Amino acid sequence: MGTVASFTVVPGSQSGRAVADAIRAACAVLHEADATFSTWDPCSPVSRLRRGEAALSDLPADVGEALDCCASARLMSGGWFDPWAMPGGVDPTGLVKGWAVDRALAVLREAGMAAAMINGGGDIAVYGSPAPHQHWRIGIRHPWRAGALAAILEVPAAVATSGSYERGAHLVDPFTGRPGGSAASATVTGPSLAFADALATALAVGGDEVLGIVSGLDGYDGYLIRADGGEASTPGITFAAA
Question: What is the rounded distance in angstroms from the CA atom of residue 64 to the CA atom of residue 242?
């Protein structure tokens, strides 16, 4: 996926060995997703699908599951997230990192860890509490000042941020097929990192129009930093004190 994943685990009553085993199993989920969905590896199942060398029925079931999520995200975003509109063929990259992190986090939960956070290149999924009576607090990087935070959010489940300040101009407007992006930084919180990831991509491209769409989605909220530095957010975003 061209990024780094980090883990924070609150083991509860689990042993150190159990924690290490759970993290190892969660990492395996991420590596498997990378091998399946990489658009950089010409031999990956998704690369073969994009070139028309394989039918969906010939590929691992995970590909169909992720693309089903992509179709749902396309509807949720009003078409602003559309992997089928990407140059070169269907590209689920805008959702699949969050989808994979969700699955990896489920491994930690099923292993009995009291709480955990996985940070997949800035897209974060959590459960439980980092300490008694505390919430997970996630810093949102300032788009123009590396090392500075634009905001700190309290996050109960998932948060994803999209923008061009790290990867450059990589966003595509699905309605024109050309490079696009009206936001300096776009953040979405919600119960699913897969959908938060996709919606953050849509918000980065569609700006205020997509922020209005996100505000109407049950459980999801958005925080937008516009190209001119102006900020906007939906009512459900919870800002934490620095």
Answer: 42
**Residue 227 CB neighbours (<10 A):** 13
- What CATH number is associated with residue 35? 3.10.520.10
Write out the chain's pLDDT in tens, 242 residues.
788 999 999 999 999 999 999 999 999 999 999 999 999 999 999 999 999 999 999 999 999 999 999 999 999 999 999 999 998 999 999 999 999 999 999 999 999 999 999 999 999 999 999 999 999 999 999 999 888 999 999 999 999 999 765 555 568 899 988 887 779 999 999 999 999 999 999 999 999 999 999 999 999 999 999 999 999 999 999 998 76
Q: Which token pair is 171? A: 């966003």
Residue 173, domain extent: 5-233
pTM, two decimals, is 0.94
Q: Are the C-beta atoms of 9 and 113 separated by less than 8 Å?
A: yes
Radius of gyration from C-alpha coordinates of the chain: 18
What's the rounded Cα separation, in Å, for the pair 124 and 120?
A: 6
Sheet with 115-120: strands ordered across: 5-10, 115-120, 123-127, 158-162, 183-190, 221-226, 231-233
> Per the domain annotation, does 36 fall within a domain?
yes
177 in any annotated domain: yes
Q: Is residue 242 part of a domain?
A: no
Answer whether 102's CB lies under 8 Å from 193's CB.
yes
Asked if residue 238 belongs to a domain, the reply is no
